[in-house]
Model the fold of this input.
Amino acid sequence: MKKLLIVDDEPNIVMSLEYAFQKQGYNVFIARDGSEALVIMEREIPDLVVLDIMMPQVDGYETIEIIKKNPAFAKAKIIFLSAKSKAADIEKGLSLGADLYFTKPFSVKKLIAAVDNLIRI
Done:
């Protein structure tokens, strides 16, 4: 079973994504900020991380930098899912190592398709 970590501080997004991905057969883990995500990643190395940028404690930019420095997480794919929709924000996210960047509001169907696609690669 593929492992998916959802990192977002918005409960409605977390609940809808958790439900949608569990229906697709994913083992889903939830974190409300980057520091919580890193603790979960140490225990359960996910195949893919859906990562928000604007969160309390440790934001998405800091989180991806820490993930990318850790060789144990090298195979984990990362999709940014953020309300930050300016071209500069998207460029920064991709330059930090994200595989894809989705802006909010987003299509759950398209996100699931993107996750399935990235995990198959």
